[in-house]
Amino acid sequence: MADKKYLTTSTGAPVANNQNSVTAGTQGPTLIQDVHLLEKLAHFNRERVPERVVHAKGAGAHGYFEVTNDLTKYTKADFLSEVGKKTDMFIRFSTVAGELGSADTVRDPRGFAVKFYTEEGNYDIVGNNTPIFFIRDAIKFPDFIHTQKRNPQTHLKDPNAVWDFWSLSPESLHQVTYLMGDRGLPATYRHMNGYGSHTFRWTNAEGESVWVKYHFKTDQGVKNLAQEVGNKLAGENPDYHTEDLFNAIDKGEFPSWTLHVQIMPEEDAKTYNINPFDVTKVWPHKDYPLIEVGRMVLNRNPQNYFAEVEQATFSPGNVVPGIGFSPDKMLQGRLFAYADAHRYRVGANHNALPINRSKNEANNYQRDGQMRFDSNGGGSVNYEPNSYGGPKQTPENAQAPLAVHGFADAVPYDDEDYYSQAGDLFRLMSEEERSRVISNIVGAMEPVEKEEIKLRQIEHFYKADPEYGTRIAEGLGLSVPAEVK
């Protein structure tokens, strides 16, 4: 091994697999014994001080969520327990790749993070304005985000890195197609949809479970910007989306979204023709139609940006009884990474800050840590079990057990169809939107220096749809590789 440069951990141990995290079987959850995955995510969370590593530039607002449909047959979550019930909430919108001072109107996914202050604790849905993502295993996330950030030598954005990674990660094609389409540049935060993206698990009072996906549909209608308009605004008013949201609420024009879910019976996941836990894929609505849940309204601006927006922390691990996790490998990594990032960036006591504090009292044995600003538990006992009446566990609130099988190993998903849904999305577009997608992609790929990267990516476009690949190749002055046709 001394003759070649091989990947190692920070302690010099060779890394056997840097593409797949270790799971309990091909469908099982990620195992904490995957120390390489944990080290990658933990180190990645500490690369920037003090702004967020991703989603640094954002805007937020307060509001409420009101239930409009009875779905108690699917979940026992208390905030969804009756039609008409209202729950206070806070939302943060953001771009993904840019720094704190970057422009709002760039082509980038938008973060869509919602915190519900329920009577059973805080519930966070931490998603994007896209129903899918670029990768499907958290072990690749630090590498992916490095390609979206700045070149370590030039400190400039690096299209070579972007397209090199995407061309070597064909699972990204569906999201790339979505991003380069019209919805990759929303007109405002008010005029875009939001998605939980991952598959989650709902469990009812009888202990019966289903798989679920979240869809927040904007009541303002979807509106997008042309690329040239976005570019112009980025120079003239880089805070355009932030300003629009604040001014709309300030004028009493309260934006709203209708929340829908897709429900999949647990047994369907074993035989469905796509992997329902693969975040690079959607569930077709013809198989699992949208079911209305309720309406989210934003009606109050923050009084202090830093206290309420910058210090707001979200994690998909913040759930309440009746809502749980799926073996989605990207979700499993986020369950660790998000809370770990907040402990580093804001501090171990971030959940005690007013913007993050739950309505119901937090009772636990966590003590001390930087910036502990409350009574720190006073003189109460700080261990459990104890004989002094301290808070005790409630077994009845455990998540429903999840059956796993197979061997613990670093294995990929057993589905290598990277092209069908990307091709379907392209074919769903009008000719006008197809032309814009082609133009956006050609413009983004032209600066790439290596022709082999361009040709490799053209292969992926062609496999999704021959017209898709051919038109991009022509736009770049290249030909589709003969072996692909």
Report on the structure:
- Helix content is 27%, strand content 17%.
- The protein has a domain at 22-131 and 185-358: Catalase HpII,  Chain A, domain 1, CATH 2.40.180.10.
- Strands 2, 3, 4, 5, 6, 7, 8, 9, 10 and 11 form a ten-stranded antiparallel sheet that branches.
- Strand 7 and strand 8 (209-218) form a beta hairpin.
- The protein has helices at 35-45, 141-148, 159-168, 173-180, 227-236, 240-250, 305-310, 329-345, 420-428, 431-445, 451-464, 466-475, and strands at 22-24, 58-67, 86-95, 110-118, 121-128, 194-195, 200-203, 209-218, 256-265, 291-300, 323-325, 408-410.
- The mean pLDDT is 94.
- With 485 residues, it is an alpha+beta fold.
- It has twelve helices and twelve strands.
- Pfam families: Catalase, Catalase-rel.
- It catalyses: 2 H2O2 = O2 + 2 H2O.
- The active site is at residues 55, 128.
- Belongs to the catalase family.
- It is an enzyme of class 1 (oxidoreductase).
